[in-house]
Amino acid sequence: MDRRKFIGGLGAGLLSLSLAGCGVKTLGNSGETNGNNGGASGDAAGNKTKPVTASVYDSKKLVIAQGTDPDSLIEKGLSALGGIGLLVKKGSSVVIKPNYSVPKRPGADAITTNPLLLAALVKQCLTAGAKEVKVIDFPFGGPQCLVLSGIKDAVEKAGGKAFDIGKQNDFTEVDTGGVTLKKVMFSKDVLDADVLINFPILKHHAMTKVTMGLKGMMGLVQDRQYFHRTDLHQCIAELTAYRKPDLTILDAIKGITDRGPMGPGTIKEWNQVVFGVDPVALDAYGANLFGLKPEEIAYITAAAKLGVGEIDTQKITVQKV
Questions:
Q1: What confidence tens digit (pLDDT) does each residue in 160-212 have?
Q2: What is the SS3 assignment for 29-71?
Q3: Which of 139, 259, 264, 309 could form a disulfide with 145 if both were Cys (CB 3.0 to 4.6 A apart)?
Q4: What would the pLDDT profile of 228-258 be if each residue is shown by its tens digit?
Q5: Contact yes or no for 86/14 (Cβ under 8 A)
């Protein structure tokens, strides 16, 4: 059986996780599968075109892991989804895209993705049989962000590779199929990967009110100024419509609630890590957690209109663990 058929069969055969006694709404398992995990399809000339992604988890479900211990939070969240083994297969290549765009120290500033959470996820992926796990971002604060954030050290100790993208040969031009964002120089590492996991932090952003998963995808493109020159929110939506992450994990242990994205700012602790396939539903939940309505965030609304995901969290099953 080839890899495409295997993944397709797996998605079709997934059973809904029982939520009895959890006090949450159950809407069932969508089990949607759209071909192979990650990677990009190509035309006859071998050019990169639209990636094909697969949702091996229930796209109508968000898992909220509560607490502060990084290893426990990652393990509980992935287990409630069905296990990392459903997503990461033996020999697969994984790209994790966190947020380390600002040269700030980890933890106390609550501005970059928690490095210990990333390390825990890297270990989970390698234990599942991944041949490599890359942790990448294109930090606008410069290459020092990777080191100062503590992410490079934590990821490499866990067995992964952590590096910045930003050089010309880190990107290749793709046709996104968008109206505003028609073509973009996009990360080669993501296009070549089997699995993409987006791992942003929940925090304030002066231009968009809040930044989470959808906006975090901007760290995979070379010319972000184009987004600002045209329609920032529509470009964000069209980018995620082009390449939806296979899983999004939101670091909502703590984050700044003002003076973002650079900070320093007022720090609020939510002590949650949110897991989900649907990037719109996850950002909608994050907006509510932040004290905003999802409809107040233009890029969330734009992504929902494009069919990227569900903005109404009442239609999403939320399981707390």
A1: 999 999 999 999 999 999 999 999 999 999 999 999 999 999 999 999 999 99
A2: CCCCCCCCCCCEEECCCCCEEEECCCCCCCCCEEEEEECCCHH
A3: 139
A4: 999 999 999 999 999 999 999 999 999 999 9
A5: yes
List, in order of start, the domains of the chain with CATH numbers: 62-312 (3.40.50.11440)
Give the three-state DSSP class for 164: strand
Q: What is the pLDDT of residue 45?
A: 41
- Residues 301 and 305: their CA atoms lie apart, in Å, by 6
Give the position of tokens 């089997």.
194
Gap between the Cα atoms of 65 and 108, Å rounded? 21
- CA-wise closest residue to 215 among 184, 224, 226: 224
Place of tokens 């996850």: 282
Residue 262: what residue type?
A: M
Which residue has tokens 């069905």?
82
| 151 closest CA partner among 118, 179, 176 | 118
Cβ burial of 139 (10 Å; 0-12, 13-18, 19+) is buried
Q: Which amino acid is at 265?
A: G
**Cα(128)–Cα(21) distance, rounded to whole angstroms?**
29
Residue appearing with tokens 């903005």:
311
